[in-house]
UniProtKB/TrEMBL annotation:
The lineage of its organism: Eukaryota, Sar, Stramenopiles, Ochrophyta, Bolidophyceae. It is a multi-pass membrane protein. The keyword Amino-acid biosynthesis does not apply. This is SLC26A/SulP transporter domain-containing protein. It comes from Tetraparma gracilis. The chain crosses the membrane at residues 136-154, 160-184, 191-208, 260-278, 419-439, 445-468, 494-526. Residues 1-56 are annotated as: Disordered. It comes from the Eukaryota. Residues 34-56 have a biased composition (Basic and acidic residues).
Length: 668
């Protein structure tokens, strides 16, 4: 079992400091099997986010019967464990409060009851907290997944949705078990920067949904407005089917009156100030939780006392419910038979849910890795998320994926262990079963203020200077002493950042990442294709006299693949070349079928002109490709057998000759 990561202070890209300890342990370690070897922090016991190695007490453990508490009575042991893990538990409580309104909105978007999304929030959070690959990362019901469920719920009903979520979980577990998390390396840094910037803007813009007037019809006009052609992602984040992230400012939304808006603005500013500045006074209490509680006190101690009110959570939807049971035993559902016909109806939705969930989970994991200077397990995260979705389907929840907004909030509050994620899940369950009368009284504008702070910490502000410098001509950068040509990147990279941000704002987070990867791949292919060079020079044939006929040699350097085959073909002067031509590939890599066909094409052109062409000095990596594609080479081209250390020489002789011969030769 790998030891937990060494602890220490880390700084996020936005300058937020937090403690990182034991952040990559597997689920078994979180349950009490870990044997951490970190050095004792210098600031123990004043720092609440550490552990006492002398007594063997480690913070962030899910169990409360660990080493170091032996000999204590159960109540004393539990209280000591609570004191040790106060920071992790309070961070989890903060996250669960922020999840409540968005879980309701996601449910309505998908066309299911709010309790279906609320149950998904705690089930996904608990399963990924225990079995996922990134301690401290939060999962729950998300709009990223809800938006692809709409059609299935409308056409087949919620029962088919539960089967779709179960199948999605199986797909994700299989993907993780097969090592599919390694595909994350295909996402370049400009895509990550564009993703974060776009996400931050979407989070901020979507908060204005809370300033719309709440309906008083049976279902709640506000609830319907959230679900009408729109989606909310990671803390009221809007991913709209029409209007994009700007949907709060379009359509027929009615805004609150000036007085109510002023009180809501007061709550927002209060929450932001407390969240930002409380850590300068004390870190003993999560600033985000204090940012939620302070406006709540203001709302009921001041605003309501002077005859005014603002929107609270119960105005969106009550969060009351009961503990779920398997859907086959729930009288509210009439589950269809699990057979091929049913799978045929749900498999498309299942694949979309699985792919979107894994993509957003991998992106969030990369962000948290950078923030905490640690490394999570991508494949394990796929498995943990798959377990969560499967259990969600079994117990009548809508499933989901990682919520990047709440994950950043948790890490920002110091919640870097599995306990913080599991604590958030369990407190969500407590809210549903018992604490809902209190939670229903929290102003939504308090959550808006906290999410504005998360928005600020999400955006990569340093990228603004890089993008600005990259857009300026070199002459302007050199003439202005305040600018530096060294703080820039290729304009193609800057373009990728901008296009990912734009797609995120107007379409979808997952679509934005796919578009960014595709555009980056096209740019890379184009640039790589332009690096291929072909040098031509004339020599005399070896061993021939002074009157021997000249021979042309082409030396190819770079990568020969689909994007460079046309420049490769255009570099030859078949009609002007003498009867004997050599093409050397000792500095060239042959990559694909297009390259094989390009060699066939050059060979055929010289054959048509009754000239002899030899292809030689092919690199070892290219030999294997050509050997596998031997049947694809034209009849006049073949690959000679070769021994260890020998170079391939494939010759295409004059058709007038007696067939053609291949020979082996050593490197010159």
């Amino acid at each position: 079992m790998a030891p937990a990561s060494a602890g220490g202070e880390a700084t996020s890209p936005s300058g937020v400091e937090f403690t990182t300890l034991a952040t990559t342990e597997p689920a078994s370690a979180a349950l009490g099997e870990s044997d951490s070897k970190e050095a004792k922090p210098a600031d123990w016991p004043d720092n609440p986010n550490t552990h006492d190695l002398e007594s063997g007490r480690e913070y962030g453990r899910v169990d409360c019967c660990m080493k170091g508490f032996e000999g204590m009575s159960p109540p004393h042991r539990f209280l000591s464990w609570m004191k040790l893990n106060k920071g992790q538990l309070l961070s989890g409580i903060t996250v669960s409060l922020a999840q409540v309104p968005e879980a309701v909105a996601f449910s309505l978007l998908a066309g299911v009851k709010p309790i279906v999304g609320l149950h998904a929030a705690w089930i996904m959070g608990l399963m990924t907290g225990l079995f996922g690959g990134r301690p401290g990362m939060i999962a729950g019901a998300t709009g990223a997944v809800a938006v692809v469920m709409i059609g299935l719920v409308e056409d087949e009903g919620v029962e088919h949705l539960f089967y779709a979520v179960m199948l999605a979980g199986v797909i994700q577990m299989t993907f993780g078990a097969l090592g599919g998390g390694a595909l994350m390396r295909m996402i370049p840094h400009p895509v990550m920067v564009g993703f974060l910037n776009g996400l931050g803007l979407v989070i901020g813009l979507a908060q204005f949904n809370s300033f719309h007037v709440q309906g008083d019809d049976e279902d709640g006009g506000h609830r319907r407005s959230l679900a009408k052609g729109s989606e909310v992602v990671d803390g009221f984040v809007g991913r709209r089917l029409s209007g994009g992230a700007f949907a709060p400012f379009t359509g027929d939304h009615e805004w609150v009156d000036g007085t109510t808006g002023a009180w809501m603005a007061l709550h927002v500013i209060t929450a932001m100030c407390v969240t930002l500045f409380l850590p300068r006074l004390t870190k003993a209490f999560p600033s985000a939780l204090a940012g939620i509680l302070t406006p709540t006190i203001v709302e009921w101690a001041l605003v309501r006392q002077v005859g005014h009110s603002t929107t609270v959570i119960e105005d969106v939807s009550s969060v009351a419910g009961s503990f779920p049971i398997p859907v086959w035993f729930d009288d509210d559902y009439n589950m269809p038979t699990f057979n091929g016909t049913m799978i045929g109806k749900v498999w498309v939705t299942s694949v979309l849910v699985a792919c979107i969930g894994m993509l957003e989970a991998q992106m969030t994991l990369s962000v948290i890795d950078d923030m905490t200077a640690t490394k999570g397990n991508r494949n394990q995260e796929c498995i943990g998320q798959g377990v969560g979705n499967f259990v969600c389907g079994v117990f009548g929840a809508m499933g989901g994926c990682t919520t990047i907004g709440q994950s950043i909030m948790n890490i920002h509050n110091g919640g870097t262990t599995r306990l913080s994620a599991c604590g958030a899940a369990m407190f969500m369950l407590i809210i549903i079963l018992a604490a809902y009368p209190i939670i229903n009284k929290i102003p939504t504008s308090a959550l808006v203020g906290v999410m504005f702070v998360i928005c600020y910490h999400t955006i990569e502000w340093s990228s603004a200077k890089v993008l600005f410098n990259s857009a300026l001509p070199l002459k302007w950068r050199n003439n202005d002493s305040k600018l530096t040509s060294e703080a820039k990147v290729n304009r193609s990279d800057a373009f990728v950042v901008v296009i990912v941000m734009a797609v995120t704002l107007y379409m979808d987070l997952a679509v934005a990442v796919v578009v960014g990867v595709v555009v980056s791949s096209l740019i890379f292919s184009w640039n790589s294709g332009n690096t291929l060079t072909v040098d031509r020079y004339v020599v005399k044939e070896e061993g021939a006299g002074d009157d021997a006929e000249a021979m042309v040699v082409y030396e190819v350097s770079g990568s020969l693949f689909f994007a460079s085959t046309q420049p490769f073909l255009d570099s030859f002067s078949e009609r002007d070349d003498p009867k004997h031509v050599k093409v050397k590939f000792d500095n060239c890599d042959i990559y694909d079928w297009s390259a094989i066909e390009a060699i066939n094409g050059i060979n055929q052109k010289y054959l048509d002109l009754e000239k002899k062409c030899e292809f030689e000095k092919i690199k070892l990596s290219s030999r294997k490709i050509m050997a596998k594609a031997k049947a694809l080479l034209k009849d006049q081209v073949s690959i000679a057998t070769f021994g260890e250390g020998e170079e391939i020489v494939a010759t295409a002789p004059n058709k007038i000759g007696s067939g053609w011969a291949s020979r082996d030769s050593k490197s010159d």
